[in-house]
Amino acid sequence: MTMTTVERVVALHRIGLFADVPGRTLAALAIRASEVEFPAGELVIAEGAVEEHLFAVVRGRVRVHRGDREITVLGPGSTVGELAALVPEPRAASVTALEPTTVLRIDRPLLVELLADRPALATGIIAALVAMLRDRSRSEGDTTPA
Amino acid sequence: MTGPHRSPHGAVPWLMAQAVLFGAMAALLGIVANAIFLDAYGSAWLPATYIAIGAAGIVVSGAVARSAQRFDLLGIALVVLGGAAAGIGAAWLAARAGAAWVSVPLLILFPILIQLGFVFIGGQAGRLLDIAGIKASFPRIMAGFPIGAVLGGLLGAQLVTWLGRTEDLLLATALSQAAFAALVWATGRRYAHQLGWTRPPSVPPGVDDTDDEPAPRFSLRRALANRFVKLILGYQVLSAVGSQLADFLVFDRATAQYAEPADLARFLAVYTAVMNAVSIAFLFALAGPLLRRFGLKLGIAANPLVLTVLAVAMLAVDALTGGTSFALLAIVSAARIADIGLTDGTTRTSINATYQVLPERARLSVQAAVEGMGVPVAIGISGVLILVLNALPFALTATIVVTIIVCAVWTWAGILLYREYGPALVHALQRRSLLVATADLDATPEDEAVARRLLASPDARAMRLGLDLLAAMSSPALAVELGGLASDPRPDVRISALAGLVASGDEPARRRLADEARAGANSTEPAIRVAAARALGALEPSERAAAAALLEDGDVTVRCAALDSVRAGDLLATLPALAALGDARSADAAAGAVGRLGDAVVPALAELLDGRGSPVPLVAIRLVRAATTRSAARDEVLRRHVGHRDRELGLVVMERLVAPEPAPDETVMALDDVLIEDVRHAGRILAAMAAMTTVGGDLRETDGPLRRALADELDLACRRVRAGRLVHHGSARLGPVMVELGEGGSIGALALEALDVLLSRTESRQVIPLLRPALTVSERVHQLPTEARTRDGPKDLLGWLQDLAEDPHSHWRSVWLRACAIHAAKARGVLDGVDVEAARAVGDPIIDEILGAAL
Question: What's the CA gap between B675 and B669, in Å, rounded?
Answer without folding.
Answer: 10
